[in-house]
Every structure is written in C-alpha cells, then in structure tokens.
Automatic annotation (TrEMBL):
Catalytic activity as recorded in UniProt: RX + glutathione = an S-substituted glutathione + a halide anion + H(+)
Function: Is involved in the conjugation of reduced glutathione to a wide number of exogenous and endogenous hydrophobic electrophiles.
Enzyme class: transferase
Naturally occurring in which organism (per UniProt): Rhynchospora tenuis
Entry protein name: Glutathione S-transferase
C-alpha cells in the first residue's frame, strides 16, 4: 500500500472510531490518523461525509467509507489476505455476529450516556439496570454462540470483540463517575474474563485511551450539559 493511501478521520474518545483503529492494528495496516473537532468540522470531514458529518470516516484512495460497522467489514474484506479474518466465514455465524454488533451499539451507547447525564437518581438507577441487562444478554450469547473460545472471534480478536471492546473504557469511566458497578464479575464472569484478555491484546493496548482521560472528559461534558440546562 502506498504511503498515505489509507486515512482515518476520527475522535480520540469515540467508541466507533476506536473499534476501527483496533481493527486496523489487528490487521497490521499502516494509516494516517486525522483527529477531528466536531464543534468546528473540517472541510475534509464535510467533503467526505456530507450526509451525517460525523466520524469515523475511512479514506482509501478515492474510496470513502462511513459508519464504523461498515468500515470494519470493508477492512476485513478488502484486506482478507492480511492478518487474521475478523468476520466468520460461515454465513450464519457472520449474521449472528452482525446481530449482536447492532445490539451492542443500540443498548450500551444509550445506557452509558444515560448514566453519565442522568438528572435524577431514579433515571440513573434505570440506566444502570439497562446496562446490567445488556451485559447479561451478552454473557449468554458468549456462553451459547461462542462457547469455549477466548474471544467472540474464536482464538483471535474479531468483529464483535472490537465492537464491544470499544466501549470498555467508557464503561469503566462511567462506573467511577456513577459510583456503581456495571461490568460485574459476580454477574457476568465470562465477560470479565474476556475483558481481561481483550485489554491485554496489542491492538487494544496501542489504541485505547486511559480510563482516567475518558473519565475527565466525561465529567467535563456532564458539567457543560448541566450548565447549559440550568441557564435555559
């Protein structure tokens, strides 16, 4: 691949960007990372994602791919001979992985944001319960659909691993801020064991920010949101 041919427009704390970066690392691909400011969108971002105007955006030569799950599939298919395959070859297993990826994004994003931005203890408790339910469902899926494997992708990190793994730091930061246990070894022991293996992998260590940095950023966003609400 020519130097500079592969570019990623991203945001350092975004789970959707982090999963793409982990996939690129897992594949061993070289790329140029371009951090974006979504409060002052760059011409590059507006040009390449004029519809949604958000990250991640993968630029591969004259090809532009948006939306993180679509980008993961593109990387896996386009560089199928490079590094490990990250989507199952079997059509049924691939469909199952896609289903759970959508479930992860649907449930974990809204519950994590809800916990951080909750205006009352009742709302926070409801969102914590939703998060517990989501993890319990994923625990059952890991037990039944991916039984006996180290990762959702088998013995190597795959599509579902980076999809779920991209939320881990945000979840741990939300635990600190809310003073609650979200990913609890007494409730989901298989997922906690999986988390330890995942975070020890090179693609995660090279890519994920620290819990402290994400916590600081989340607290700042929460203060900004509350100040804006109180001034209205």
């Amino acid at each position: 691949m020519a130097e500079g041919e592969l570019k990623l427009l991203g945001l350092w704390y975004s789970p959707f960007v982090l999963r793409v970066r982990m996939m690129l690392e897992q594949k061993g691909l070289s790329y140029e990372y371009l951090e974006q400011d979504l409060s002052n969108k760059s011409e590059l971002l507006l040009k390449h994602n004029p519809i949604y105007k958000k990250v991640p955006v993968l630029i591969h030569g004259n090809r532009v791919i948006c939306e993180s799950l679509a980008i993961l599939e593109y990387i896996d298919e386009n560089w199928s001979g490079t590094g490990p395959r990250v989507l199952p070859a079997d059509p049924y297993k691939r469909a199952v992985s896609r289903f759970w990826a959508v479930y992860i994004d649907d449930k974990l994003l809204s519950s994590a944001i809800g916990i951080l931005m909750a205006a009352t203890e009742e709302v926070k408790a409801e969102k914590i319960k939703d998060t517990h339910t989501a993890f319990e469902m994923l625990e059952e899926a890991f037990k039944k659909c991916f039984s006996g494997k180290s990762f959702f992708g088998g013995e190597t990190i795959g599509y579902l691993d980076v999809t779920l793994g991209s939320y881990l730091i945000s979840i741990r930061a939300a635990e600190r801020i809310s003073e609650s246990k979200l990913l609890d070894e007494t409730m989901v022991p298989l997922l906690v064991e999986w988390e330890n293996r995942f975070l020890a992998a090179e693609c995660a260590k090279k890519t994920l920010p620290s819990v402290e940095r994400v916590e600081e950023h989340a607290r700042m966003l929460r203060r900004t949101r509350w100040e804006a609400n109180s001034s209205n």
